[in-house]
Amino acid sequence: MVLGGVLLMQQAAIGVLNAKLSAATIQASQAARSAQSRLDALNIDSDTNINDTLAGILTDISDKSGSTGGYFVIVESQLGTQKSSDDILESSVPQNLRDQVKSHPGDTTLLTAPTEVHTLSGPDVPGRAFGTTLQVPGAEGPQVYIIFPMAQEAETLRYLQRAVLITGAVLVFLLTFIAGMVSRQVVSPIRAARRAAERLAAGNLEDRMLVKGKDDLARLAISMNYMASELQKQITQLEELSRVQQRFVTDVSHELRTPLTTVRMAAEMLYEAREDFDPVASRSAELLQVELDRFESLLTDLLEISRFDAGAAVLAPAETDVSELVERVVAANASVAEANHTEVRVHTPGPIMAEIDRRRIERVLRNLLVNALEHGEHRPIDIHVAADEDAVAIAVRDHGVGFQAAQAKQVFHRFWRADPSRERKIGGTGLGLSISMEDTRLHGGWLNAWGRPGRGAQFRVTLPRQAGAILQQSPLPLVPRDLISPLPAAPFEDESPTALPSGVDGPGAPGGHAQTRDSLTREDLTRDMLAGDNLAGTGSRTDHQEPR
């Protein structure tokens, strides 16, 4: 509309001005010829008063006054300046036109230039000025300037401009109304489809769209309804399969309890009487007892997993000292650490209170510690505890075999092992990290893993200090602190870490973590910190979760 209005105004202005210019040129030419004819008939010898002659010429060529839409005449000669009206000012003649006329004294060509008409009685208006030199025999001819005001033309263009603006505004309003009506007819079904999709995503699988007509939008509604039906069918089948699977795991676990109890009673009798057996039978009784313990732990973990899958796990938070809980877990596994010749060092700033489920977090820490003892290669294990106003974090760091960076999510999969050929020395069931992830998620927390082959691994648990709070960041970095600064870390310089005996491979030992720090590149540290802390800082809890 703006472009059309501009083009229309340009064409209208060009037409009006060209018509006025043509008419003014004809009138000015006639006036100049009339004045020249009077001078040609002038007898210089008999007419002694040339000033009276010029006044008569001015009267003859003057048409109307400027106030009635005619033109003004200004005659300049050696005797002075004469005007057809006292209202017109000499400044109405543009200077460039004066210069052109004076530079051609013997030329009777009619020259023209745009001007601004200045009058005493009204405002300035645009106009057109014509000028030429009259020829007088034996003397210098006067200059005649004919000025045409264009007030009427300017007023006409203003009226036209207002008409264009009003018409454009009305058309814009009408087009907007029409476009709104048309878009409403198109967008309304799309909005209905969006709302139906949102209801489907919310779980209302029985919701359907209303089908009207036979156009493309109606076909869209039919397709949406068909998709909803198929989704409902598939989800129902998957839910049924999931229920069957959960029921199967639960039933098998419960049913195995009875024969397991009987087998354990017989195995304990054999185990107690193993000294009376030959060496082969005695060793078999010992292996039977160990495997029965593993089998019982596996059944317990399967029952716990089935409760998580069924959504029956319930959190029982209570105010708990996290530092005391960590030291308790370390003390409970002291015999395992001593048998594995591994030193466990706890770095804690003191009592840290948080609302957590003590039983579940104790199980998480026990799983992480046992996992570190299993893969720590007899090197020291560091447990860091830190907190801020909103969260508490526990990091379990070992300096063992580690794992690939791409396996940081897979370590939480059920029964997953980085090296399938590696023998379990302590005897885990393969479900510990998966259960730990579910326990942490039940608290609304994060469980992250970092590892590199030959550089060890670190598992970090981040929990909200208030039950039900939303985490924003973790007090501990995901990248191990000994790779950023030498141990002990700066916040714990004055602490006396709780340690278990039998450490044989300290920080300065060959293959220890002091040498690992130098072998890790700055790019690795930067990438891990961005992938760990910054990702956790967004509140995401899906960076290392197991696919459900």
What keywords describe this structure?
Beta-Lactamase, six-stranded mixed β-sheet, 548 residues, Heat Shock Protein 90, HisK_dim/P_sf, 12 helices, transmembrane, ATP-binding, disordered C terminus, phosphoprotein, alpha+beta, five-stranded antiparallel β-sheet, His_kinase_dom
What does it look like?
The chain has 548 residues and is α+β, with helices and mostly antiparallel strands. The chain has twelve helices and 13 strands. It has helices spanning 2-40, 50-61, 95-102, 151-201, 216-272, 279-309, 322-332, 334-339, 358-375, 432-442, 513-519, 522-537, and strands spanning 72-77, 80-83, 111-117, 125-133, 143-149, 318-321, 344-347, 353-356, 381-387, 391-398, 446-452, 456-464, 498-499. A hairpin with a 7-residue loop joins strand 3 (111-117) and strand 4. The protein is elongated.
What structural class do helix, strand and pairing data support? alpha+beta
**Quick one: how many beta strands?**
13
> Main β-sheet: number of strands, strand sense, barrel status?
6 strands, mixed
Terminal residue distance: 58 Å
Shape: elongated
Strand order of the largest sheet: 11-12-10-9-7-13
List the helices and strands and how they pair.
Elements: H1 2-40, H2 50-61, E1 72-77, E2 80-83, H3 95-102, E3 111-117, E4 125-133, E5 143-149, H4 151-201, H5 216-272, H6 279-309, E6 318-321, H7 322-332, H8 334-339, E7 344-347, E8 353-356, H9 358-375, E9 381-387, E10 391-398, H10 432-442, E11 446-452, E12 456-464, E13 498-499, H11 513-519, H12 522-537
Parallel strand pairs: 7-9
Antiparallel strand pairs: 1-2, 1-5, 3-4, 4-5, 6-8, 7-13, 9-10, 10-12, 11-12
